[in-house]
Amino acid sequence: MSASPSDIQHVVQNGLPIKEATVSAPEAPAGFFAQFAGNPFFTGGLGLAGFAAILAGAQKGLRQGASLLKRRLLVDVDINVKDDTYQWFLYWMTIHHRRQFSTANQSNSLEKVGIIESLLRRFPTRMHHLSIATSKTQLPNGAVQTQFALIPGPGRHILRYKNAFILANRVRETKSMGLNNGNPWETITLTALYSQRHIFETLFLEAHELAQKSVEGKTIVFTPRTASWEKFGEPRRKRTLESVILDEGVKEHIVADVKDFLRSEQWYYDRCIPYRRGYLLHGVPGSGKSSFIQALAGHLDYNIAMVNLSERGLTDDRLNYLITILPKRTFVVLEDVDAAFSGRTMSDESGYRGANVTFAGLLNAIDGITSSEERILFLTTNHVERLDAALIRPGRVDMTVRLGEATRYQAAKLWNRFYGDVDEDGFNQMRFLKALEELGIVQAEGQESAEPANVTSAAALQGLFLKNKHSMEGAIAGAIELRRS
User: Fold this and answer.
1) Beta-carbon neighbour count of residue 25 at 10 Å?
2) Is 169 helix (H, G, I), strand (E, B) or coil?
């Protein structure tokens, strides 16, 4: 507070010492930022926020660095469930794990190996996420044998292959389903060091060879399901051409034509001719039409795709699409094609008139603008006279072969097949053929061109031999049954 003039005068008059008074001006209000800077709560929060920002930046930098490091040092390979390699790799992964586990158990402790190799053998890679796969196999006696196998399930698996470690991540999308079969969408991602990327080619080649060996000596039969082909049951054992006995020269004629077609691909392309061929096999029931197709597929290492034209829901567009996406090295087989159409309309005794293949749709699928190439088609029928001429014209059906009633040649060959090891001199074979002559089922030797009075099929002959597989006398005595077959 400042001193007034009267106070000063009083002090001087009384002789009191005069001290110089210090007068302080009133303090100005503090600045806005200064007030926050002096607030301990604010400074503490600002420090925490800054520390968090530093941590977030460091985390982002680590992520980017890890991503860059991964791109530089690692390589990924994706396999989706629609690729053929998907099933091949799962099968290979199962077999590889079994081999690796077996090797670890059977390794010789006296074998001199390095320290690292010793540790790797002591702690082999294992799979902890497994799925079960059930397969059924029909035995020759008709019994069904069920087998169970454990395959790698969804999750992460570590594999060791040729001294390289591979991370296999199988992912199943539960919210994404396949439109064709309703199965969940799956992918497998394989990760390895970039310097070891060459092992993927070796691995996939080995997986393909292993898959081929699993179906070696077998024929796969495909059937349509919605808009894709699926395996029908387990692969069947290949049937040899020698097991199907047709009349003399018929089988050889068809086989020679198919082989010539398979060798003539470039010839077709050079002349701008569609590279496809059709065969019509017709004749009495039991003459061996379907059996021959199966044997031919096994002989040429082909598979078979069966199409039922009377299937409800099979439309023109679907049939055309199915034939377009036909698996490689596969015959298309339309059995009993006469039963599907009455004239040019679909036959249906139940009165169903829903979505079905039309006659025009069948013709377009066989040789229309959108029909596929590199295709071999087989049609079979018991009544060729019922087929429309447009269906069997050249270009759609290139070869027509009749497989008729059993002939003397077929009867002799079938006899040798069943009894050749016990009837070495052929005496009982001549007795059987003589019995067939007397019944009017076959003609005498040298008169095969004449029509026999009675006929039978190759299937009926085989049935007789199967019934008497241990008795030639029973087969000769039972020849009378063939007149009623």
Assistant:
1) 5
2) strand
3-state secondary structure of 466: helix
> CB neighbours of 323 closer than 8 A, spacing ≥ 6?
332, 365, 371, 372, 375
Tokens 């063939």 sit on residue: 482
Query: Is residue 350 pLDDT above 70, yes or no?
Result: no
- Tokens 């003397």 -> residue: 408
Q: What is the DSSP letter of 376?
A: E
What are the angstrom distances between the C-alpha of 197 and each of 95, 99, 169, 170, 205?
22, 23, 17, 19, 14
C-beta separation of 91 from 209 below 8 A: no
pLDDT tens string 7-38: 545 544 555 454 444 444 455 555 555 655 56
Q: How far apart are the first and last CA of the chain?
A: 141
Q: How far apart are CA 455 and CA 406, in angstroms?
A: 7
C-alpha pair distances (Å), 294 with each of 378, 383, 468: 11, 21, 26
Q: Which residues pair with 160 in a beta bridge?
A: 165
Task: HSE, CB side, 13 Å, CA atoms: give it for residue 38.
Answer: 6
Residue 21, pLDDT score:
46
* Residue labelled with tokens 């007030």: 35
Q: How long is the chain?
A: 485
Tokens of 246: 């047709």
In the structure encoding, which two tokens stand for residue 433, read together?
């053929």
The first and second tokens of residue 232, run together, are 């029908």
Point out the least confidently predicted range of 242-251, 254-263, 351-360. Answer: 351-360
Give the whole-angstrom CA distance, residue 242 versus residue 234.
23
> Which residues fall within 8 angstroms of residue 172, CB to CB, at 6 or more apart?
154, 184, 185, 186
